[in-house]
């Protein structure tokens, strides 16, 4: 049995939320190194794992060898959840877990281009298809580039960073991570004792844009809503406010707890029935012990809900588009 490169965050809390039992069918929407999957399989459940990253295959092979007949990996992003389940021979989905964002395993692979601390090709794709981060910084106009830096990276000086990128690429296109990180650092006047590297927000924005992470999260949540059986459980772990706001808003709306309008602009009564019941108010966070042992857990939040018998709501497209 191979060991996972990193520990799954909030594992005990996720298992409590999913309450897996022998014979249950679970979807691990972010397989990664298989941490959640292995824990679910050890309870006797069956797991359909999703991941668009081709480099996870060795971990999947190891899990399949350790738990024959109860595990399969499907190469797909979140949005393919319903199709992945339909392609299995299972007739009921009892639970689904999402672990949002880039994994420490991906950050540690310099050749993937996710990290501004390690030199590598400016790629950032979680799959092996589509536009790269280099494509964006070398071809996008100032307006769209500044927009995603502000929207996805929450970079207050997005215009200044975009200007610096466009000026530099005239001399030489960007191909390496450290080259881009240095350009952003210079544009923002250096580190100046800042608690985070000046390029942190730019790299985050590019990664989210390259992988359409927020759009995939929204579509994945809707796919889980459409696929979970009544009584099925949903658990979502996020690490950033952008992601958590999407999950919070989705579950608030689908559980009938979304805030209403003001007295000046009242919201029309929604006749759709709640498709989820919240397991607990707010979000659960890691214990002090887990935070000390696993730095990745410091910003983690878990939200969980149980599927009702109400029909799924119609998907809403385009909400996270840049």
Structural commentary:
Strands 1, 2, 3, 4, 5, 6, 7 and 8 form an eight-stranded mixed β-sheet that branches. The chain has 13 helices and eight strands. The protein folds into two domains: 11-105 and 216-307, Vaccinia Virus protein VP39 (Rossmann fold), CATH 3.40.50.150; 110-211, Putative methyltransferase TM0872, insert domain (DNA polymerase, domain 1, Orthogonal Bundle). The chain has helices at residues 11-18, 35-42, 57-66, 81-86, 104-107, 133-139, 142-153, 158-171, 177-187, 200-211, 213-227, 241-254, 288-293; strands spanning 25-28, 46-50, 71-74, 95-99, 233-238, 276-278, 284-285, 301-307. It is α/β, with parallel strands linked by helices and 322 residues long.
Gist of the model:
Keywords: Cytoplasm, Methyltransferase, rRNA processing, S-adenosyl-L-methionine, Transferase. It is built from 13 helices and 8 strands. The protein has helices spanning 11-18, 35-42, 57-66, 81-86, 104-107, 133-139, 142-153, 158-171, 177-187, 200-211, 213-227, 241-254, 288-293, and strands at residues 25-28, 46-50, 71-74, 95-99, 233-238, 276-278, 284-285, 301-307.
């Amino acid at each position: 049995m191979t060991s996972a490169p990193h520990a799954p965050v909030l594992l005990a809390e996720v298992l409590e939320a999913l309450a897996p039992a022998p014979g249950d069918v679970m979807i691990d929407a972010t397989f990664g190194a298989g941490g959640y999957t292995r824990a679910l399989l050890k309870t006797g459940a069956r797991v359909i794992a999703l991941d668009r990253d081709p480099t996870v295959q060795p971990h999947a092979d190891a899990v399949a060898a350790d738990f024959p007949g109860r595990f399969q990996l499907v190469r797909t992003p979140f949005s393919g959840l319903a199709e992945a389940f339909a392609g299995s021979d299972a007739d009921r989905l009892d639970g689904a877990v999402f672990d949002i964002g880039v994994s420490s395993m991906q950050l540690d692979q310099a050749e993937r281009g996710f990290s501004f601390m390690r030199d590598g090709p400016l790629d950032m794709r979680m799959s092996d298809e589509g536009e790269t981060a280099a494509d964006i910084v070398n071809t996008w106009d100032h307006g769209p580039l500044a927009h995603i830096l502000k929207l996805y990276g929450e970079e207050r000086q997005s215009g200044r960073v975009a200007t610096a990128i466009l000026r530099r690429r005239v001399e030489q296109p960007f191909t390496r991570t450290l080259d881009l990180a240095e350009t952003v650092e210079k544009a923002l006047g250096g580190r100046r004792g800042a608690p985070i590297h000046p390029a942190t927000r730019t790299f985050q924005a590019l990664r989210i844009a390259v992988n359409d992470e927020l759009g995939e999260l929204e579509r994945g949540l809707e796919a889980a809503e459409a696929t979970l059986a009544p009584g099925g459980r949903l658990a979502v772990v996020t690490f950033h406010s952008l992601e958590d706001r999407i999950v919070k808003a989705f579950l608030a709306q689908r559980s009938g707890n979304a805030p209403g309008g003001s007295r000046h602009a009242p919201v029309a009564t929604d006749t759709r029935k709640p498709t989820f019941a919240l397991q607990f108010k707010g979000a659960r966070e890691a214990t002090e012990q887990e935070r000390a042992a696993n730095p990745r857990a410091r910003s983690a939040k878990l939200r969980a809900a149980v599927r009702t018998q109400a029909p799924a709501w119609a998907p809403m497209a385009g909400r996270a588009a840049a």
